[in-house]
């Protein structure tokens, strides 16, 4: 199989009846345009930004109380002004399908490691949102306050977010497996007035009691006016701290109240998300209501072909923006199936089994999970059928061509594999899935509608080759601000310093002739041996195919004004890394990529460090290798010990600079 070979073509049913096909007919019927193909539609969407985004709003039936005076006021970046004059409520839009007969439709199904599954209708969800909002208001929480959650991916997290955003409070969440330090690094900056907390969580068949640490954390957040505690571990009591109310009690106190759905300006903050914070305190990224709504409607309804009656399950934690994305599936009237704990417990079949049991139509996971399934030789299609699955999303890191092959070998051929990429910064995607385009091996299908993305070389010229992923025009879901960044200096520094006036995302990318995209890794981790720019994913693509390798990471070591590549490898077995294996790895890299990609050093290590949302931590290792005394923020890592182990291995290999 070659890179870019077609693995899937849209069947006639999608070409005629998908939401995107209906949208095309809708545009034509309204005289907005007739488009021969997706590329023509995309061109229109970036040349006519205002009619395009208005058409998404209208086609998806989004609601506002006062319409906008126009779609775009100021259009310069940073600072583009979306939907000036509009007044709307975010939660009202997510719950709009729960009205009238919609009340009985299933809204949320929760699968937990720590208890039986639970099902909730849209009617129940609305009632609980109204009750929790009323409870919050009685505690003096209101518009503009921050409501923070340390919660698992389940029903309570959705209720709390909707209750907060219904009254105009800002929702921000972390996952309970974060260390208390990592949570305080985040919430300590935004000073929440309310905190919703679990007493512990289950992961991989084990139960983790977090009451002691979380009680201490409550004391370290002085602005709190109320704390709601969830007995995620039902055999344990609530967190013992001042002002704690149990979840059921809080709902009982507010029972009988409907959500207020307070109308607010388009840029009113709804979410605060965080950068990974591996090299310092996480940045607090503030997202606005209308921007998230219209962008998620586009991504989920048009690109994801999600509709009322569909069943949507994304494996995520509340510490990753894919949770916020998943919540927006309610916008389409879909049923959201939440899963907590480990995707690999009791084994890697868990997600596939749940997908069958819950008749899931849209399943989302990470490239790492799919690679794990390939390596284990799973064949979920043969084992479970999975005929209802229409779309499989993958993100978190670039999906290997071999994993495209695995998907179309091991899963039913009808499904669209939607590799998507963007991130926390836009709480969405620049490139991703399209039901009207073929899926090509190793390639993300397209630039999304309304996204004017190109690759730029280091001089700021658009290139057909590999370059920095930039977005040349504003997107509604670009952040409205960073928290406590009144002059916008940190915001500008994060995206607008590489090239003036355009958003540089920090990914290293190439767009293909057919309009698809291949991501080669983070651009700040690109390697420059002999002046040739190499994306880290180009090397992972080769190395991770070797059965002898369980995991790997590559970084550049500065030597005499040049860079030499250092490959860290976690061997898959007790065989370690002898000379024959090293040579085999080098051979594969040389033939699969190029001689330039071959590492100068290969070092065996016990583990590779990951962020809490599952990304390899290249920068912290590079800093270590190039003389930083210590990585800045161990709390940001899922497995901080890995960094210490790597330091020891690098020292043993004589690769660390002499102290002093
Ligand atoms: C959509 C994404 O890009 C998600 C991520 O990888 O963080």
TrEMBL record:
UniProt keyword terms in alphabetical order: ATP-binding, Ligase, Nucleotide-binding
Does Manganese show up as a keyword for this record? no
Q: Which residues form the Acetyl-coenzyme A synthetase N-terminal domain?
A: 38-93
* One GO MF term: ATP binding
**Which BP terms does GO give this entry?**
lipid metabolic process
Q: Does the keyword ATP-binding apply?
A: yes
- Family designation: Belongs to the ATP-dependent AMP-binding enzyme family.
What PANTHER family does the record tag this protein with?
ACETOACETYL-COA SYNTHETASE
Q: What is this protein called?
A: Acetoacetate--CoA ligase
Q: Where is the AMP-dependent synthetase/ligase domain?
A: 104-474
Domain AMP-binding enzyme C-terminal stretches: 547-615
């Amino acid at each position: 199989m070659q890179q870019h070979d077609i693995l899937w073509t849209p069947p006639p049913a999608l070409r005629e009846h998908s939401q995107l096909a209906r949208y095309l007919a809708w545009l034509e019927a309204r005289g907005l345009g007739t488009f021969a193909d997706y590329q023509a539609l995309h061109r229109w969407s970036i040349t006519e930004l205002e009619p395009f985004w208005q058409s998404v709003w209208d086609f998806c039936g989004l609601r506002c109380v006062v319409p906008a005076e126009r779609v775009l006021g100021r259009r310069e970046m940073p600072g583009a002004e979306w939907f000036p004059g509009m007044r709307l409520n975010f939660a009202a839009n997510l719950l709009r399908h729960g009205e009238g007969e919609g009340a009985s439709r299933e809204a949320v199904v929760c699968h937990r490691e720590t208890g039986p599954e639970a099902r909730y209708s849209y009617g129940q969800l609305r009632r609980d949102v109204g009750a929790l909002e009323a409870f919050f208001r009685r505690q003096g929480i209101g518009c503009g306050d921050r409501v923070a959650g340390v919660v698992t991916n389940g029903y309570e997290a959705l209720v709390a977010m909707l209750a907060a955003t219904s009254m105009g409070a800002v929702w921000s969440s972390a996952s309970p497996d974060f260390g208390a330090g990592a949570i305080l690094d985040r919430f300590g900056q935004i000073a929440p007035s309310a905190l919703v907390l679990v007493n512990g969580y289950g992961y991989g068949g084990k139960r983790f009691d977090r009451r002691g640490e979380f009680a201490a954390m409550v004391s370290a957040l002085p602005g709190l006016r109320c704390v709601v505690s969830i007995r995620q571990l039902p055999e344990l009591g609530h967190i013992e701290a001042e002002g704690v109310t149990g979840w059921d009690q809080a709902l009982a106190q507010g029972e009988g109240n409907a959500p207020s759905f307070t109308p607010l300006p388009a840029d009113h903050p709804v979410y605060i998300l965080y950068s990974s914070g591996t090299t310092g305190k996480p940045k607090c990224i503030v997202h606005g209501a209308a921007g998230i709504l219209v962008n998620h409607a586009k991504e989920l309804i048009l690109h994801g072909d999600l509709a009322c009656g569909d069943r949507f399950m994304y494996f995520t934690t509340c510490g990753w923006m894919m949770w916020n994305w998943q919540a927006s599936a309610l916008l389409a009237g879909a049923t959201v199936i939440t899963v907590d704990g480990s995707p690999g417990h009791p084994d890697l079949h868990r997600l596939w089994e749940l997908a069958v049991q819950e008749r899931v139509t849209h399943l989302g996971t990470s490239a790492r999970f799919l690679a794990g399934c390939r390596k284990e030789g799973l064949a979920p299609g043969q084992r479970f059928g999975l005929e209802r699955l229409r779309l499989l999303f993958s993100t978190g890191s670039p999906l290997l061509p071999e994993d495209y092959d695995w998907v179309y070998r091991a899963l039913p051929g009808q499904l669209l594999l939607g590799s998507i990429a963007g991130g926390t910064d836009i709480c969405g995607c620049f490139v991703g899935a399209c039901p009207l385009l073929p899926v090509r091996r190793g390639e993300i299908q397209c630039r999304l509608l309304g996204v004017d993305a190109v690759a730029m070389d280091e001089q700021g010229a658009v290139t057909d080759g590999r370059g920095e992923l930039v977005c040349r025009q504003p997107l509604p879901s670009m952040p409205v601000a960073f928290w406590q960044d009144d002059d916008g200096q940190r915001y500008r520094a994060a995206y607008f310093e590489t090239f003036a006036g355009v958003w540089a995302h920090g990914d290293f990318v190439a767009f293909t002739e057919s309009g698809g995209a291949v991501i080669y890794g983070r651009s700040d981790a690109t390697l420059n041996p002999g002046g040739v720019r190499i994306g880290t994913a180009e090397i992972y693509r080769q190395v991770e195919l070797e059965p002898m390798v369980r995991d790997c990471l590559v970084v550049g070591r500065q030597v005499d004004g040049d860079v030499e590549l250092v490959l860290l490898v976690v061997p898959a077995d007790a065989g370690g890394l002898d000379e024959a294996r090293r040579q085999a790895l080098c051979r594969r890299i040389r033939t699969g990529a190029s001689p330039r990609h071959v590492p100068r050093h290969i070092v065996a290590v016990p583990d590779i460090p990951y962020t809490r949302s599952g990304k390899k931590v290249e920068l912290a290792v590079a800093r270590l290798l190039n003389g930083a005394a210590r990585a800045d923020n161990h709390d940001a890592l899922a497995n901080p010990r890995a960094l210490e182990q790597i330091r020891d291995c690098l020292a043993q290999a004589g690769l660390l600079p002499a102290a002093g």
